[in-house]
Design goal:
heterodimer; A: about 70 residues; mainly alpha; 2 helices; B: Tetracycline Repressor, domain 2; Four Helix Bundle (Hemerythrin (Met), subunit A); 2 domains; 14 helices
């Protein structure tokens, strides 16, 4: 393999060429996958909201001590 | 698979829904953990310091309960498919690959313990980690397939949520919190053994050494009765501690009498008549006792 061929391979790799899998997802699979992706996104957002709420409540608990001085 | 593939050719996990993953968390068991943890918070002395943080702690405990359920389903996926009661779970049906259930369980375990450390403190978070570890490693991996005492010792995991809740609002786990633990711990054997008398065939098929399969029905009925006596003696004694009052004591005595009557009738029944009734009543019994504790505290019986 000369230099030009190597660079061509790298370029192709970036295009996400097939890995040898021959599976073509059906409509039902794509629909189910999209729904799962949305559920994961919502779960992540919900968890961020939980951590944010916890942080704010913890900080507000400590305000009285900080403000007393 | 090619373009000509039909709906029937699609492996089940490729069309799995978020609901299938959610069912790995055993939502019904989760709701019981939420309820008992909440009672642990409310019966702790003094007002709850921050209801916002208490709610967040309950969510963290619920996530922890869900995480342990997912890990339990991952570990038991081979035997779940052999029992009618559990054959429809997402791993045996192929809806969720076992490795994904494992991943979900591990991630949720870490996140729930971390969230509880933030909202309820390190003691509560540590107790939650112990609960998850005990349920998955001690109960599921070590005891369940080895000894008929599996649910006796493993019951500790189910009994811990009120202590976790108590620790989340007070930062401590004194003796009175462990009285709630003791109540659920002693309640667990008669509850599960009543079920195992009914589902003996299932456990036989899966090779799980539940008490009726190993020692027979008569020994199981006798053991149910013994634990029931211990339970109805222990339950009213919680009223000696500041966390429970006379209303709770009255409920514990009246409901305890009915529990004992059912356990006694089952003990005398050679064909296990009444096992289903005792199983159902045991759920009502525990729920009612914890509900009375909640009512006492909300009604201001304890100042």
């Amino acid at each position: 393999m000369d230099k030009d061929e190597r660079s061509l391979d790298l370029a192709e790799a970036r295009e996400g060429l097939p890995t040898g899998e021959l599976h073509q997802p059906t409509e039902a699979e794509i629909k189910a996958r999209d729904k799962r992706n949305i559920a994961i996104a919502l779960a992540v957002v919900a968890f961020i909201a939980l951590v944010f709420a916890t942080t704010m409540l913890r900080l507000s608990q400590n305000l009285p001590q900080g403000g007393a001085s | 698979m090619n373009d000509a593939a039909t709906e029937n050719d699609i492996p089940a996990h490729l069309t799995a829904s978020a609901r299938d993953y959610a069912s790995l968390l055993k939502p019904r068991v989760m709701s019981l953990s939420i309820f008992t943890a909440m009672v642990g918070m409310v019966v702790a002395p003094g007002p709850v310091p921050s209801w916002g943080l208490a709610v967040l702690s309950v969510i963290a405990i619920a996530l922890g309960a869900g995480a342990s359920a997912a890990l339990n389903m991952w570990w038991d996926s081979d035997i779940d498919g052999r029992m009618a009661r559990t054959a429809a779970r997402p791993i045996p049906t192929g809806k969720v690959p076992a490795a994904e259930a494992f991943g979900l369980g591990i991630v949720l375990s870490a996140l729930s313990v971390w969230l509880l450390a933030l909202s309820g403190g390190y003691l509560a978070a540590g107790l939650l980690a112990v609960t998850i570890g005990f349920y998955v490693v001690v109960y599921s991996m070590l005891l369940k397939r080895r000894t008929p005492q599996n649910i006796v010792i493993g019951g500790a995991a189910g009994a811990l949520p009120p202590v976790v809740g108590y620790a989340a609002v007070t930062g401590a786990a004194p003796l009175e919190a462990w009285l709630l633990f003791a109540l659920i711990f002693i309640w667990t054997p008669p509850h599960f053994w009543a079920l195992s008398l009914l589902k003996k065939g299932d456990y036989e098929a899966a090779g799980i050494p539940m008490l009726p399969n190993v020692k027979g029905d008569a020994v199981t009925r006798e053991e149910i009765f013994r634990y029931s006596v211990a339970l109805v003696v222990l339950a009213p004694m919680l009223a000696v501690a500041p966390l429970a009052g006379w209303l709770y004591a009255a409920a514990a005595i009246i409901l305890g009498a009915e529990f004992l009557r059912r356990a006694y009738l089952l003990r005398r029944s050679p064909d296990n008549t009444g096992a289903g009734g005792l199983f159902g009543f045991s759920i009502f019994y525990l729920f009612a006792l914890f509900l009375v504790l909640l009512i006492e505290h909300w009604a201001g019986f304890h100042g």
